[in-house]
Amino acid sequence: MKNATLPPLTFLREPGAAPDPAGLAEVQDIVRACMQCGTCTASCPNAHAMDLTPRRMWRMLLFGLFEEVFQSRTFWLCSACYTCTLRCPRGLPLTAAMAALKRLAAAGDDAANRKKALFYQEFMRNVEKNGRVQETGLMFHYFLAMRDPLLPLEYTPLGLKLLRKGKLHFGGGGQRGALAPLFGKVREMEARP
Amino acid sequence: MKYAYYPGCSLETSAMEYDVSCRRSLERLGAELADIPGWTCCGASAVEPVSRLLTFALPARNLALAERETAGLDLLVPCSACYLNHLRVGRECAADRALPGRINEALSVEGLHYAGKTRVRHLLDVLSADVGAEAVAAAVRRPLEGLTVAPYYGCQALRPYPLFDDPEHPRSMTPLIEALGATVLPWDLGGHCCGASLMATKKEAALVSVAAILAGAEGADAIVTVCPMCQMNLEAYQREALKAGGHGNPVSVLYLTQLLGLAFGLSEESVLLHKNLAVTGALTDKLRACAAAEA
Question: pLDDT confidence of A172, banded at 50, 70, 90?
């Protein structure tokens, strides 16, 4: 059940590198026209759990306060509901900016951030291997990667419910390995300077 | 009416009742579905935080297969995350002129080509625009009289591309539910995020959203959904969310297509109602009363 033979799923850069300057410049470009109206913050269903409001974070990015931004949990709390993107009076794709920050943080050298990216990384590792995502295997590998013995307990009631309903499936579906060539090619393309 | 059909990974496993009820209720409505051979995962909401190119290449692979295998058909997608991922490829290619070339360079490894010819449609779009409430009403064998339903739209069927509904005040389900003989609960949480994959990464935050939605659905016999992620968050974490939120009552959560199927006279087994994680006794009593009235 180990995935040791697969290369790391950090597509951006070598693990351990500082956030990619070109990537940071791209996110800055996305929010360059922000006029600090705060519609994004007022619209965000998860703002209550964030340490920086989205409005404040965009400004900090433009000021180059990258370290502060990457130490915040704000962008990890984006659930991609697209309400801010829909309502932004400047028409800025703010949900895409949140995802770009997740990518940059995952490729940076901060261990806490790399851990927060593990769910997405394990998800895509599962897709690469199985062609179609196998939810049961995904959660299993996610728990292993998180190395937190208490985490699986939080999801045990759900696991038991799904088991009773015949919804837990181990093993691959019919497309195992089908995405290996595409993943390989994308990895090669994104590694180009 | 014929469509290429992309069920997506969840509908093969944890959301099998969505897949089965979707196929069976669409059959009753005279819509034909053609499966795309060899389809693969679209990356769901996990791909964008990992790779920008893969965000487009994964759904483009399915679209390229659809262009080759089911040419000329619209692609019907019941899962909102899959819908948005496939829809976004064409939208982003129109905005970023370098993107189609990069996507096709990636797809060339399998000899596939994406030309952007397939129109991507959410199931709800097809039901409300192509099928229509009148045809739905004509297929009803067992009116759901006395049932109050809260339509839950979620996020990605509505936003960021408002193609078939008002993304701030969605209402495309209202005529469909009324066509079944049921009553629509007036509420304003139909487009409020359920937390999506935060349920795996930041559970406390997602539970707040689920609790708010459940509290807003007070008075409904059932919430109906059009997305396996919304369905899972609202049904599987219901007890935890009610505890965290401090108020609200257990409520049944069904896929819209299960409700359609039941009104069309399909049995509870036939729409796999036994696979749902939140079905109250009060709902099954009402459903059985509707069935008895028909007989």
Answer: low
A116 Cβ under 8 Å from any chain B Cβ: yes
Sequence ranges of the domains in chain A = 21-107, 116-191
**Pick from B51, B196, B277: which is nearest to A11 by CB?**
B51
CA distances from B158 to A7, A81, B35 (A): 36, 9, 25
pLDDT above 70 as % of chain A? 89
End-to-end CA distance of chain A: 34
Longest CA–CA separation in chain A, Å? 53
Mean pLDDT of chain A: 89
A-facing residues of B in 257-276 (CB < 8 A) are 274-275
8 Å CB contact of B201 and A136: no
Contact B243, B249 (CB under 8 A): no
- Chain B residues in contact with A133 by the CB 8 A cut-off are 9, 41, 44
Contact: A124, B197; criterion CB under 8 Å: no
Q: Computed from CA positions of residues B145, B150, B156, B161, in that sequence, does the dihedral angle turn out positive or negative?
A: positive
Domains of chain B: 2-122 (1.20.1050.140), 133-294 (3.40.50.11810)
Residues 212-231 of B with CB under 8 A from A: none
**Torsion sign over Cα B214, B216, B221, B223:** negative
Look at residue B262 in the predicted model and tell me its pLDDT.
98
Residue-wise pLDDT for A81-131, tens only, equals 999 999 999 999 999 999 999 999 998 888 999 999 999 999 999 999 999
Rounded Cα–Cα distance for residues A79 and A57 (Å)? 16
* Interface test mutation site (partner A, options B42, B48, B50, max chain A beta carbons within 10 A): B50
d(CA A76, CA A84): 15
- Is the minimum CB–CB distance between A190 and chain B shorter than 8 Å? yes
- Closest residue of chain B to A170, computed from CA coordinates: B13
- Which amino acid, residue A177? G
